[in-house]
């Protein structure tokens, strides 16, 4: 494989790829032509930024290049000034009578987000006007008139998206226009490299090479841990000059857990929250006040809405006047409508808003003007995320970027400290390239048939396998993909001539599958009163949680659902004023914590344990931590108190070289600081093997430091240890693949992949195939193989999990059992829930749950005579249900869709599954007989079976609200773990 020439450019001395000295930094602009230099002077660029100093010389020389630097350091101009210069020079050197050197496009600027196009156009058009180079934008919203105009008279520089490039290959005039391409610039290339969009684009670049010949490739990237791999992705393994700016030495970071003050005690009541969250809000406002313009990053839309609601409750329009300040804070995330996002971006850029509360939607290069400070609320989860986010601040004349991480709990603090130290040291995690995606191969193979009308299989294979993510694709695997596509009638395979041809269904497939982004339904949220669109909700949230009367937060405001229209995919809402409303329960794609970061948290525990055991207090240990990590003594002490309490229990500490396994009731917790993907993999192995042993389902929930198993009572913690000590590390992948066949995770992915292979044709209305039939039909096909591969790539780390098992079996990693729960074990949090409504400040939520359950319908079935069966709302059930036929109080309360349970109870001869259903019904009947309507209410909740209903009923509590609060918590637990149950 050709290697890249990666120069060590973090030192002040720059070397060329041949080892010679380069021109002084100040001379970078001298590599550009006179007209560009004149425009630079007019634009006010007298001194190049660091990326410009380092990257312009090789780019101006026509080399492929990867520029790695934070957003806001002039990366766009770094790439485009040499491109503009080259285009302008070529036009000037070619006499008119010799013909246009660029009868089509000269350069493509490919950006992953359409939102970037608006910013890029403004900046690039100015340069184009100065240099007589035409610039235009093309994406999904471009009008037909503008598209036609571009085909007839192509601009020199076209700003576009990966998906629109796919469409351009299909138009005959546009395809001719691509023949003159000399330069391709890919923005945010690191984002694309790790995704299927990037896999698709990498093949598209090789298709472009077939049309245009060789062209210069330039990639712009945030800080990454594996720049050579990103460069190989960009160029297909060809030579590439990598120019990397050392970000870690240019950032100032503080990690803080705000101390609760008397002000926070007052604010807690005003905010309808607890004092801890009030302290977070207060400290964020203080940081915003202390700076001119601030970005406040959170990790999920849920947290953005919840934290935004706290600001909103302090005053109208985000004016947090309850803190005696006129600070204004806007909310920005991907579920808001386009108009709402643009509005808040423009207001922030104009200085009308002091801060933007945002998710990763603001990580990429959306132009919102100068930012002088970044607040990260809760751990950023990854080093690269922190560098990218904090890197958005302070880039006027290469200023240092400043950021503050506000942490919320000990896990969060330790994790943020590890990430901050690693960021300063430049220890950025690797993000693996999305390699070998067979549905991307399928997608591009059909596109090749469309573009060429007919093409030899060998030629098509050569084009696809030149793309870096597919360098390992075998010709046999490629032919299997072709056979699947031909069987699905989206292309024709001529075996005799060994070529593929387009068919009548090819063009429909291509236009329906321009994107590799899964086509998931979203529901528009509309305000009933005004009719305006508020934002969107994910289909899973609507299906699983949204019903009439539910309360949620969007755009930092409270809304009550009044109607759900599934046919129109709309949710109608009305605004409410109650600040204690329910936060939307979607998790989205949680940012996974890498194993190295979680391992350093384990190392911190290992270092602290003997100090506490030797009599040191949290203050003394905190002093040592502050010398290594960027935290004040209060923050370090606050986190270390958890470890001090753990040592006082005399339980062993879970560390990077010790697992600690604990149990409470049916919950077994494995303390394992190995990161999300490793723990997810180990958890699936445990749940699969323990489930096989008992014949029961094992529910699973993980975070970076814990694996939580909800088990039948007959499983013991020693069974968990036995699985860890005896499972062959080489069998991990096979064990998980077997378990996946029963999971919703695989079935959901399988449907998405089947669409890319043309097995499901949504464009023909073919979307109603049951997941069970689909799984049975697609086993032993490339579709199934790809769905499994994708689950492993996205969610799991088989190698790391195998390493953990091997270390346990070599006795390099201890696995110790303790009795009861430990302070560290109970210190976790449920996945994705970072800022929910505070405990006991949820009156409207409890009222909503009570009203919903009372209106839910249940089946009542007499278990004595089995003849009487009725269905009615819970509110109409008597305090003590009784069969009107035989008088028995042994009445089961069942969900209204549980007809199979009724049939099982009534069956004379029962199979194994019917026996299980009958046993479950009789357990429910015992509860109703003993506890009456209270049992009916608990059993009517979502995902609350007889066992959990009994636990809820038997708890001592002061009032009815506590009963419904326990039901709500169990429903949330079920929603988090639902995909792991049969």
TrEMBL record:
SMART domains: DEXDc, HELICc. InterPro entries: ATP-dep_Helicase (IPR052511), DEAD/DEAH_box_helicase_dom (IPR011545), Helicase_ATP-bd (IPR014001), Helicase_C-like (IPR001650), Lhr-like (IPR017170), Lhr-like_DEAD/DEAH_assoc (IPR013701), Lhr_WH_dom (IPR045628), P-loop_NTPase (IPR027417). Residues 280-445 form the Helicase C-terminal domain. It holds the Pfam family WHD_Lhr. Residues 56-242 form the Helicase ATP-binding domain. It comes from the Archaea. Gene3D superfamilies: P-loop containing nucleotide triphosphate hydrolases (3.40.50.300). GO terms for biological process: DNA repair. Keywords: ATP-binding, DNA damage, DNA repair, DNA-binding, Helicase, Hydrolase, Isomerase, Nucleotide-binding. One of its GO terms (molecular function) is catalytic activity, acting on DNA. Belongs to the Lhr helicase family. Lhr-Core subfamily. This is Lhr-like helicase.
